[in-house]
């Protein structure tokens, strides 16, 4: 739990909750990777399809974490959905950035990791395996139209701004009440 909480933190959490709900809407059920069917899905994706290896570096690592391929935030608006997750090691879980400090998409992130490890000859094979998971496996990610993607961005940004504004309003209200009591 973070000790210093900003209004952006709560706004970002609200956006992730929305991306989770939309992902579940397409999946037709809940997707909690911590219990029940969602947990079974995560174990199967991690251990059966990706053979308990990191999807980027292919190291066998006991501590594999959940990676959202299309980033689960206001950079890429990826949904929380089985077709958008894969296991990664802690090093590959740090999304690489380009020269302008912008996060790379998963494909360029994969390329960068292959480059760092001198394994560029494995790039196309690893990419194809991930693409199969996203587009063709039983967990395939919803094929969103440009309009749908745009709508998700607009709604997520509006939610983000509203939550931030509510935090500011609450502070203003507190100051107003505090002042009223001090004056009386
Ligand atoms: Zn890795």
Salient structural properties:
mainly alpha; single chain; binds zinc ion; elongated; 53% helix; 5 helices; two-stranded antiparallel ribbon; 184 residues
Structure description:
This protein is mainly alpha-helical and 184 residues long. The protein has one domain. Helix content is 53%, strand content 4%. It has helices spanning 7-27, 36-49, 106-116, 123-135, 146-183, and strands at residues 65-68, 85-88. α1 (7-27) packs antiparallel against α5 (146-183). The mean pLDDT is 95. Bound molecules: zinc ion (ZN). Zinc ion (ZN) binds at residues 54, 56-57, 59, 88-89, 91-92.
Structural class: mainly alpha
Low-confidence stretches: none
Give the count of helical stretches. Answer: 5
Question: Rounded to an integer, what's the Rg over CA atoms?
Answer: 20 Å
The molecules bound to the chains, other than polymers, are: zinc ion
Helix content: 40-55%
Task: Estimate the strand proportion.
Answer: under 5%
Quaternary structure annotation: single chain
Q: Report how far the terminal alpha carbons are from each other.
A: 39 Å
Mind summarizing the main beta sheet? 2 strands, antiparallel
| General shape | elongated
Layout of strands and helices, then pairs:
Elements: H1 7-27, H2 36-49, E1 65-68, E2 85-88, H3 106-116, H4 123-135, H5 146-183
Antiparallel strand pairs: 1-2
Helix pairs in contact: 1-5
Zinc ion binds near residues 54 and 89.
């Amino acid at each position: 739990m973070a000790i210093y909480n900003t209004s952006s933190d709560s706004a970002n959490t609200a956006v992730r909750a929305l991306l989770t709900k939309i992902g579940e809407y397409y999946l037709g059920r809940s997707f909690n990777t911590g219990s029940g069917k969602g947990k079974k899905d995560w174990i199967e994706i991690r251990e059966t399809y990706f053979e308990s290896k990191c999807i980027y570096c292919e190291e066998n690592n006991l501590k594999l974490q959940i990676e959202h391929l299309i980033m689960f935030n206001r950079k890429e608006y990826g949904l929380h959905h089985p077709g958008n997750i894969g296991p990664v090691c802690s090093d590959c879980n740090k999304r690489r950035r380009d020269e302008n400090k912008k996060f790379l998409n998963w494909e360029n992130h994969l390329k960068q990791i292959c480059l760092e490890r001198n394994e560029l000859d494995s790039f196309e094979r690893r990419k194809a395996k991930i693409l199969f998971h996203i587009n063709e496996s039983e967990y395939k990610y919803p094929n969103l139209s440009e309009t749908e993607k745009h709508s998700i961005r607009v709604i997520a940004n509006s939610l983000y701004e509203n939550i931030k504004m509510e935090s500011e309003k609450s502070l203003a209200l507190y100051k107003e009440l505090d002042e009223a009591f001090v004056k009386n």
